[in-house]
Structures are given as C-alpha cells and as structure tokens.
Amino acid sequence: EFSEQVLNDSGHFELSTMYHAIFLNDLVDLVNVLNAYSQTVPKPWAGHIVRMSNWLAAMSHPDGEISFFNDAALDIAPKHTEIARYASRLNIEVPEADSNVSAILRDSGYVRAVSGLACLICDCAPVGPTYLPGHAHADSLSFELSLRGKRVLVNSGTSTYAPGDERQRQRGTAAHNTLVVDGLDSSEVWAGFRVARRANTVLLEADLSDPAVISASHDGYCRLPGRHVHKRRWQLDNDNLYIEDRVSGPIVPVNAYFHVHPNYHATRAANNAVKLESGEASSVVIDFDSVDDIRIEDGTWHPYFGVAERNQVIIASLGSNSLDTHVSWAEN
User: Fold this and answer.
1) How far apart are CA 201 and CA 218, in angstroms?
2) Residues pairing with 285 in the sheet
3) Would you list the DSSP string of 191-222?
4) Sequence-distant contacts of 40-49: CB under 8 A, at least 24 apart
5) Whether pLDDT at 190 is above 90
6) pLDDT band at 37 (very low <50, low <70, confident <90, very high)
7) d(CA 260, CA 145)
8) Is 309 helix (H, G, I), strand (E, B) or coil?
9) Which of 77, 189, 195 lies closest to 132, judged by CA?
10) Whether the Cβ atoms of residue 52 and residue 59 lie closer than 8 Å to each other
11) How far apart are alpha carbons 296 and 265 in whole angstroms?
C-alpha cells in the first residue's frame, strides 16, 4: 500500500494529519511485531518512518500537536514526539522536530512558514484521493496561525462523525479560515463522508525566504454562473501576516472567516480592526481593507472528539471581490 497511500513528499494520501499519524504509528507497530518474532523488516520501512515523521512534524504547531486540516482531532493518534521515541526504541532514529523549520509539502499541498514568533500553516491541498474523499473538509485555502508557540487562528476541528447538521457544519467552508462565496461550500460535502463537486487547488508560489510568500487558487466556485475563482496570497514576516484575497467574476456576497482560539478574546477596535487579547501574551490586531461589515460571533472549537469549546469567529463581509487583511503583533 505504500505506493498507493504515501505521496512523494511522504504525506498520507487522505491529507489528514490525524490519519497520517495513525498510519505512521501502525507502521512502527509492524516493525515492533516483526522484531519480536525475529522476522526481517523490509528495508524501505525505516526510511518511510523517518520521512513520514518529518512530514508530521511540519504539519504540527509549535505546541507539538497536529494542525486541523480535514478530519483531525487530538488524542486519537500519538504526537510526533511520542512516535519518534517509539521508533528510537526500535533503532530507527527520527530527527528531533524543529519548530522553527519551514517546509513546502508540494505533493500534499501544504506549506509551513516560520518567521520570528509566527508559525503559519497554509492549505493549498486537494480534497484527497478522488475516489476516497470521506475525511475531506471544504477547507480550501484555509490556514492556521500560532504566535509565541500558542495557537491564535484555528480551523474548527472535528468532534463527531455522526451524519447530521453538526457534522455538516464542521466540514463546511465557514468552519475554516477562508472565504465563503455566495453562501456555498467550496466543495460539496454531504452525508457525513461524501463529497460531490469539489475544489481543484493549485499552489502558485511558495517562497520561504524573508518575507515568506505563498499563493494558491481554487476553482470550487466555478459551478456558480459567474465561474468564480478564489485566489489567496499570504506574506509573513517577523511581525506581520498580510493576506490578499481575490475572487474573479461578477460581484456576489463573499464572507471571510477567522476562527479565534478560545484563549483569545476578540473586540472591535478603531476603524475596520479587531483586537485579540489573551492574559498570557501581547495583543494581536487584525485590520481589514475594503469591507462592508465586520461581525464577531460566538462559535465552537473542537480539539477532541465529543468536545466543544466556546470561541469567537470574526466574519468580514467584502465590499467587493477583494479583501486585504493585515494581522500584526508586537515582539514580546
């Protein structure tokens, strides 16, 4: 199954950090069993374990836990550090994870950029295998952001697999840090584990120098009469994250969603700005350009199955088919 399920950049083909970790831990289990019965371990397996561990480290936040793209929740699979320790007991040495490392995971479609206090993980990925998109979310061009080792902007996570309104909501585009065009999901998720028409995403640029620049587009809204395409560009430096969103085609209702980690509290600031404050860190300011309206609503974040933590969601309604967002923070 390696040629089927493991991509050239060593990501698991379902593009879920949680299922990648499950696959990887199962692989180390198989090495353990073969060793216990004095059987030969296939030579490529150690290399697979090292490379898949590196992928998992790149897709984890500085807090050591996985990012939430597609179906993902904590405490289902071991963390990267736990799998690495397990592998080392079997004489497979996995390099220690470096939270300051940037990475372009081109075959998977994810990009990690680190600059100063910030760690940005961008989703420029497809929904997964065309014939097996069951764990996919409609999260194209979403992202997660950590500052000072703590999460600030988060995708909503996964708490249930039971078909119904809540499962549908958690898989929907509005549960992720990206744009919703004309009230629709970017990929048509339905029935718990199904996807109909889905977004095709293209990674256009990934330059991890200073500043880091990442851009991508997706055509999930081409099913609209105006055949709209969403293009997003991120630019990250030590103190700032700039996001440029552009939607081609006729003007339609477009909302940008930003989900705030429960440790932060969001309030309106001067002009078109929102301030995020936490008792543990300095404040973060999000400025919006070309918006009709900014709302702060109650939401939920789902770090574990069966768990819902209250958080806030910032919703910026675009005044046109473009939006410039500036996220800034102070060194501290």
Assistant:
1) 4
2) 275, 328
3) TTTEE-S---EEEEEEE-SSSEEEEEEE-TTT
4) 44/2, 46/92, 48/2, 48/6, 48/10, 49/24, 49/87, 49/92, 49/94
5) yes
6) very high
7) 10
8) strand
9) 195
10) no
11) 10
Q: Compute the distance between CA of residue 296 and CA of residue 314 in angstroms, rounded to an integer.
A: 5
Nearest Cα to Cα of residue 231 among 209, 211, 203, 252 = 203
Statement: residue 23 has pLDDT above 70: yes
pLDDT at 66 over 90: yes
Amino acid (one-letter) located at 2: F
- Structural tokens at position 96: 């220690």
For the CA atoms of 169, 173, 174, 177, what is the dihedral angle to 10 degrees? 130
Q: Show the beta-strand stretches assigned E in 14-79.
A: none
What are the angstrom distances between the C-alpha of 167 and each of 64, 67, 72, 152, 170? Answer: 26, 19, 13, 23, 5
> How do 143-147 and 194-195 pair as beta strands?
unpaired
Rounded alpha-carbon distances, angstroms, from residue 179 to 66, 112, 158, 196, 256: 23, 20, 19, 19, 4
Q: How many residues does the chain have?
A: 332
2: tokens are 């390696």
Tell me the mean pLDDT in the region 294-308: 98
Q: Report percent pLDDT > 70 for the chain.
A: 99
Residue type, 293: D
Q: Which residues of 284-307 are buried (b: 16+ CB within 10 A; e: fewer)?
A: bbbbbeebeebebeebbbbbeeee
Token pair in block for residue 48: 């697979």
The DSSP letter of residue 242 is E
Specify the 3-state DSSP secondary structure of 63. Answer: coil
Coil, strand, or helix at residue 83? helix
Q: How far, in Å, CA of 269 to CA of 221, rounded? A: 32
Q: What are phi and psi of 19, to 5 degrees?
A: -70, -30
Mention every residue, 6+ apart, whose C-beta is less than 8 A from residue 203. 106, 109, 111, 124, 214, 215, 216
Task: Please provide the average confidence, as pLDDT, over all residues in the chain.
Answer: 96
CB contact at 8 A, 256 and 245: yes
Is a pLDDT exceeding 70 seen at residue 332?
A: no
Backbone torsions φ then ψ of 211, nearest 5 degrees: -80, 160
